[in-house]
Amino acid sequence: MKGLSAQRFLVGAAAVLLSSSALAVSSYPMGWYLGANAGSTDVSNVSYPGNTSTSGAGLSGNLGYKFMPYFATEFGYSYYANSVIKNDQGTKAGTVKNYSYDIAGKGIWPIMDTGFELFGKLGAARVSASTSINSQSAANTLGLSQMSKSATGLYFGGGASYYMTPEFALNVAWMRAAGNNQTGDLDLLTGGLEFIFG
Questions:
Q1: Is residue 34 very low, low, confident or very high in pLDDT (cuts 50, 70, 90)?
Q2: Local structure of 13: helix, strand or coil
Q3: pTM assigned to the model
């Protein structure tokens, strides 16, 4: 008899948890949203001549649509810190502007009754690296020339959001736009804001 009571208790508790989870998930907003983020960037898996700085500050923005509490799609743009190329004497020879466009699916895990969500993104990015010359003489010593390179690769990463109101969230994320050995892989670690407007 005690076993039967325990079984009933467990079944009842599971039903309460599932129903409260469903209510909590249904309260998360859905629809169109805009995001704006800022943070630190780095370019890796690319080789430039001379002495190169590949990290600094960057920005990203995205427009997405949240179809359900667990899934959204996004279009995004990211601007990364310029890579600065110097010769052995410390003269700036060139500057590489790095940016990417992306389209991604966003898997979401709402954490019940907390306002927090964990998320992961997977999609494709178009990565661009545009080199301009600052000092022709310094560039000549390095064999550096003005050029633009682009590549298409994976876009992926993850992070967490906290909803301060049903429409307004803070988030932190790490994302990578993968290019090739001429553009490099572009990493972005950010904090940002997201606003759902229906």
A1: very high
A2: helix
A3: 0.82
